[in-house]
């Protein structure tokens, strides 16, 4: 990553350049990214523009450079020589010009963490532009809040949505073929009805061919229709494709799929689409559950039937305890819920969908209840709440 260095001729402190070198060396050690001082012509090629403000008296230089800088413009102060006051002037000028900027000031560790979060958010925004998401069939009838204006979504964030008829999926399933890979062979060794596994793998094969045909980065499917049409479920196919890096959601829930893509891009972790099943307000705990999850997310799993129907193949996963992120946004990204969490345990209750976790939520449960974003939520391992908040600050 390349950054612009600004220092006034009036400030002759001989340690200023050494301070910047030491700071970026530290950030490099923390983030793994190489930082190089460069001229403005090279800075504008970066995902974001980083400007190191070594001293005061630099606002004029910044004003001249701003037309060539890319938003968000990240100002990093030196902590001395009137750098902070100059940076505040620059931030005000950017605000007056309607441009997005971020001011980083503090310890090396604080600056490194903030820079990593902002850069990750900017990369995510850039990565989402142009991705293709498929909607196979219509949303399930009980999802009454999932309508999305495709054109507005594409304008806002650059995501393209492709509608695919359920008939096309059913025709693909009739081909009764699926990839012969290590995952499918391992599943055939599971202690479960082999005929049902083969049927679920044939749905996986159908999903895979549709993904390839339409060059999809992800899709959601009206999966409950499969219970009656082919007497099996899409749970296993979704679990396998999520493991392969294809964002794969159920019930035709397009807003959840979009949120899954955002969280997946930000965290680079597999993402669990699930329902909130029970809340303990006194302990600030929520139990989430669903019948599918990426196969590379649990430490172990077994096959079971689909919860509501008692047929097909579902995933009962043992998700590791520890830090996690809960996230969901509306389809147009105008409301969102973000919370860090700690997964306490995986459960095996008979009256819930097959993969179940009990977690402690960092934010108050009242906020969970009073942020209407739909009936599905997305969970990944690790705390990426700051990264998500930076992402929405960039929209």
What features would you describe in this structure?
- The chain is α/β, with parallel strands linked by helices.
- Helix 4 (83-96) links the parallel strand 4 (73-77) and strand 5 (101-104).
- The protein has helices at 16-31, 40-43, 59-65, 83-96, 108-128, 150-157, 166-173, 182-188, 194-214, 225-229, 235-243, 254-267, 365-369, 385-394; strands at residues 2-6, 36-37, 49-53, 73-77, 101-104, 132-136, 160-164, 218-221, 247-250, 272-280, 285-290, 300-304, 314-318, 322-329, 336-347, 355-361, 377-381.
- The chain has 14 helices and 17 strands.
Sequence-ordered SSE layout with sheet pairings:
Elements: E1 2-6, H1 16-31, E2 36-37, H2 40-43, E3 49-53, H3 59-65, E4 73-77, H4 83-96, E5 101-104, H5 108-128, E6 132-136, H6 150-157, E7 160-164, H7 166-173, H8 182-188, H9 194-214, E8 218-221, H10 225-229, H11 235-243, E9 247-250, H12 254-267, E10 272-280, E11 285-290, E12 300-304, E13 314-318, E14 322-329, E15 336-347, E16 355-361, H13 365-369, E17 377-381, H14 385-394
Parallel strand pairs: 1-2, 1-3, 3-4, 4-5, 6-7, 6-8, 8-9
Antiparallel strand pairs: 10-11, 10-17, 11-16, 12-13, 14-15, 14-17, 15-16
